[in-house]
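The authors assume throughout that readers already know how a fold can be written as discrete tokens. The format is easy to grasp once an entry is in front of the reader. For illustration, here is how one protein appears when written out as sequence plus structure tokens:
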Amino acid sequence: MAAAIEITNLTKQYPVPMKREFVNAVDNLTLTVGEGEIFGFLGANGAGKTTTIKILLGLIYATSGDANVLGAPAGDIAVKHKISYLPESPYFYEHMTAREIVTFYAQLFGMHREDAKKKADELVDFVGLGGKSDVNKPVSEFSKGMRQRVGIAQSLINDPTLLFYDEPTSGLDAIARRDIRDLMLELKRQGKTMFLSSHQLEDVELVCHRASIIHKGKLQVLGTMEELLGGERVEIKIENAPAELAAKLSADGAIRTGDVLTVSVVRGDVSSVIDAARSGNASVVSIVPMKRRLEDIFVEIVGGRLDKVSGSLISTGDRPLVNNETSSANPYKEIAK
């Protein structure tokens, strides 16, 4: 897969007022975004997300390192015709309709008026604002979800290859968020690449193929959704567990419901727990791998618990380490004997 974005050792420093010091807003960042993927770029407020996006858009310059967009250095004039950016809260002239707004911006792109109107009709219909109830409404009467749709329509005027979306579903209700996600997936089907910055982690899980998390300017997580959310724990339900195994499982936090014990163990202990259950003539009801949530990983990083749990979660081609709870000693082996 060709790269739409290539970032190598990117650093952006800002001087600290009244001090002879500098702070790294972006600190030695390296990552690649493939063509045609929706890539999640996540982090807490102040993590360096906006600074990185500004560098990629050519609005500011990096202190050191390289950033290439669509095969050219960030800020290249020719590339700017192939990219688009949707901020979290786009501003529109309140008295204009969606079609008038898109027509206006299409003319700013250099389109003749008739071509601009045709393009506006196409894009307003694409984002679902072409119905009779919406087509003549001024933007002042639009909900935030409808405004975001106008923003998406505006971002598509130049038929961009690469889209930068900043919090496109922030502040929207569940239905509006689903509609925006559907639009993004349709754009992916059309072959467009999206660089998505969002705090709506559930949306990121649903639309992104890969995601990264940066914290204090440094890359902490990079991997596919499958890699990041796979988890290292397995839930096992055992019926009629023998006394010794039941006591051990209960001590490890097993939940009893009637004759069934439900316990969560690390993958390395699964075989021994099953062997112990079988040797005691117990029944293994179910074995279910437990998925993590992106929110869990995000909280570990931002909450300062990453190093205690697993260190860096950056994938290098193998499955990234999501948690490091497997102990060297397996407490169930003796029970299984």
